[in-house]
Amino acid sequence: MTIPEGWLGPDQNFLGLDEPWCRPDRAGVYVLPAPYEHTSSYVQGSDRGPSAILEASHQVELYDETLRSEPYRDWNGVATAAPLQLGGKVDREAVEAIEDFVRPHVKPGRFLLTLTGEHTGALGAIRAHARRWPDLCVVQVDAHGDLRQAYQGNPFSHASVMARVVEDGLPLVQVGIRSISPEEVELIHKTKTISTFFASQILDPSGPYEGRAATWVPEVVKVCTGPVYLTFDCDGLDASLVPALGTPEPGGLGWYDTLALVTALANGPGIVGMDVSEIAPIEGFVAPQFAVARLIYRILGRVGAARSHKASGVKRQA
């Protein structure tokens, strides 16, 4: 069988899956690369992040020992679209192009993962999902508030993307924030639909940044007002895990606490879609994109397991 036009085959797709597991006519997960970068204000190269993640994913072990299954099979496959060609579009036009790219694929029973460059690209994917789920709650894992009304004069800067989400009327839950401006703090304090969990409040400052999930993850779940869209800026993780970033910050989330958060969200309100952004690959250094590819696969496993248990009526522990 031939892979349909516009979709990637085994040598290019996420996880390097063979047919029939990479076919869009059967897969429960779609990976949508949208490599956008225009406003990166420190390290350039996030537009190369999606392709680096796809390449590294071929080395990810397909068996998840914590779930005792192969999640790609549980989803009936993972299909990967050919990367979106933006043709020089930037700012509002780029966001609209990404929304148009994602929206046709938002359907019941399907899970979409959008891989973008700078965080601005997430806005189009979020808006596409909000059309399907009007009660959507956006959970942002990030080092930065991204709530400036504009940055360097641009309201579509990567530093302003969550301000646009709030303007759209979507409730926002921020996790791991540790770099923020007075303007953004003021917005958080006066906006009832924003809940912010600063890294300094949820992580042990004496380190290591692991093992306290039981004390703060339930609080995050509690403030989620509807089905969750997870927007995952990779600098939300500690830079020791993923140093190849557009704007790296120390003191972020650890691996197991991140998985605890994702598991609780999946088992609780449910995660209906997600994006991953801000990987800026370092030539010759593959560990960051491999870590992100592996994390994505773990997240897909937890989302899939939660959906299966909810469908069967079995209650799971967070």
Structure description:
The structure is a single chain. The protein is an alpha/beta fold and 318 residues long. The protein has a single domain (14-312), classed as Ureohydrolase domain (Arginase, Chain A). It is built from 10 helices and 8 strands. The chain has helices at residues 49-57, 71-74, 91-102, 122-132, 161-167, 182-190, 199-202, 213-223, 255-267, 287-312, and strands at 29-34, 78-80, 111-116, 137-141, 172-177, 194-198, 228-233, 271-277. It has an 8-stranded parallel β-sheet, with helices on both faces. Helix 4 (122-132) packs parallel to helix 5 and helix 8 (213-223) runs parallel beside helix 9. The radius of gyration is 18 Å and the shape is globular. The N and C termini lie far apart (41 Å). The mean pLDDT is 94.
Task: List its salient traits.
8 strands; eight-stranded parallel sheet; Arginase, Chain A; 318 residues; alpha/beta
Rg (C-alpha, Å): 18 Å
Q: pLDDT average, as an integer?
A: 94
| CATH topology-level name | Arginase, Chain A
CATH class: Alpha Beta
Q: Spatial order of the strands in the main sheet?
A: 2-1-3-8-7-4-5-6
Number of helices: 10
Q: What is the oligomer described by this structure?
A: single chain
**Which regions have little confidence, pLDDT < 50, spanning 5+ residues?**
none
> Which percent range fits the helix content?
25-40%
Number of strands: 8
Give a short account of the largest sheet.
8 strands, parallel
**How far apart, in Å, are the first and last alpha carbons?**
41 Å
Structural class based on helices, strands and sheet pairing:
alpha/beta
Order of helix and strand elements from N to C terminus: EHHEHEHEHEHEHHEHEH
Question: What is the CATH superfamily label?
Answer: Ureohydrolase domain
Tell me which CATH architecture applies here.
3-Layer(aba) Sandwich
